């Protein structure tokens, strides 16, 4: 399948195929280009939780919000605790975490909505962004899948949440966004033991040093397939946050001191 993300602006990538299906839909992933944050968070850091200057981050968010025509007051932000908890968000949740991390919705790593004017967000710097869209039911969602969220099946939890809202998994479209690629994601056996055995052959490679390379994109794709999402409805990006240093922050490449990109999806009013 072709690259799902289209670049028409230096500060973000868009899933244009979905936006063409629904003209009110805005969906994509920010880059690190175009903001005002200073090293080591330069430039367009979206994360309020990484010891960057808070006002700089808010200005970055406001700039992106203006570029996307989706006001910051409509953003919904989750705490992100590397778990698999999902929340169905509504107009009542808008503004949560938008300008103050302390007001983020606690203990969630994914969110789903069918309401307009609700801008669902998640933050990344190597972890996997999972985007979801059911064009029949007009339900959308985004999830943050680190290795823990991935192996514990946050992708499956998202599919189940869509199902509970009336969505058929066979109608669900999913995109796996920019994250660290298998080539650069070396882990130890402790991580591998958490991965269900059926997924090992596609996503785990043993290295000569006794460590492993883990393919988070493939792991999440296999989990989505097992959850009933059709193969032709899953897009997987070729972008790697570690390798594409001009475009993206990377927690691993930047030794933990870095900014965050934003994964976003929302129907405009």
TrEMBL record:
Note the InterPro entries from the entry.
Cu_polyphenol_OxRdtase, Cu_polyphenol_OxRdtase_sf, Cytotoxic_necrot_fac-like_cat
Q: What cofactors are annotated for this protein?
A: Zn(2+)
Q: Which reaction does it catalyse?
A: inosine + phosphate = alpha-D-ribose 1-phosphate + hypoxanthine; adenosine + H2O + H(+) = inosine + NH4(+); adenosine + phosphate = alpha-D-ribose 1-phosphate + adenine; S-methyl-5'-thioadenosine + phosphate = 5-(methylsulfanyl)-alpha-D-ribose 1-phosphate + adenine
Provide the alphabetized UniProt keywords: Hydrolase, Metal-binding, Transferase, Zinc
Could you tell me which Pfam families the record lists for this protein? Cu-oxidase_4
- GO molecular function terms noted in the UniProt entry: copper ion binding; hydrolase activity; S-methyl-5-thioadenosine phosphorylase activity
Task: Indicate the family of this protein.
Answer: Belongs to the purine nucleoside phosphorylase YfiH/LACC1 family.
Could you tell me what this protein does?
Purine nucleoside enzyme that catalyzes the phosphorolysis of adenosine and inosine nucleosides, yielding D-ribose 1-phosphate and the respective free bases, adenine and hypoxanthine. Also catalyzes the phosphorolysis of S-methyl-5'-thioadenosine into adenine and S-methyl-5-thio-alpha-D-ribose 1-phosphate. Also has adenosine deaminase activity.
UniProt-recorded name of the protein: Purine nucleoside phosphorylase
Q: Which organism is it from?
A: Oceanobacillus picturae
Upper classification of the organism:
Bacteria, Bacillati, Bacillota, Bacilli, Bacillales
């Amino acid at each position: 399948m072709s690259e799902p993300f289209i670049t028409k602006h230096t500060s973000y990538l868009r899933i244009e195929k979905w936006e063409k299906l629904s003209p009110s839909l805005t969906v994509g992933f920010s880059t690190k280009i175009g903001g005002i944050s200073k090293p080591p968070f330069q430039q367009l850091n979206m994360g309020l939780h990484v010891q960057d200057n808070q006002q700089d981050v808010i200005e970055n968010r406001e700039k992106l919000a203006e570029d996307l025509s989706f006001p910051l007051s409509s953003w919904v932000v989750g705490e992100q605790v590397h778990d698999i908890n999902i929340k169905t968000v509504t107009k009542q949740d808008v503004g949560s975490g938008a300008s103050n991390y302390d007001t983020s919705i606690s203990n969630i790593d994914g969110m789903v909505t069918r309401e307009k004017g609700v801008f669902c967000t998640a933050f990344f710097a190597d972890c996997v962004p999972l985007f979801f869209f059911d064009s029949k039911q007009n339900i959308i969602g985004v999830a943050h899948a680190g290795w823990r969220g991935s192996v514990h099946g946050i992708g499956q939890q998202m599919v189940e949440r869509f199902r509970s809202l009336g969505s058929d998994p066979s109608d669900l479209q999913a995109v796996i966004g920019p994250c660290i690629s298998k080539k650069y994601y070396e882990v130890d056996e402790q991580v591998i033991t958490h991965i269900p055995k059926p997924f090992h052959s596609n996503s785990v490679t043993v290295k000569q040093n006794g460590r492993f390379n883990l393919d988070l994109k493939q792991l999440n794709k296999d989990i989505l397939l097992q959850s009933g999402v059709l193969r032709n409805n899953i897009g997987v990006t070729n972008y790697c946050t570690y390798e594409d240093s001009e475009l993206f922050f990377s927690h691993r490449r930047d030794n933990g001191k870095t900014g965050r990109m934003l994964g976003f999806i929302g129907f405009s009013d």
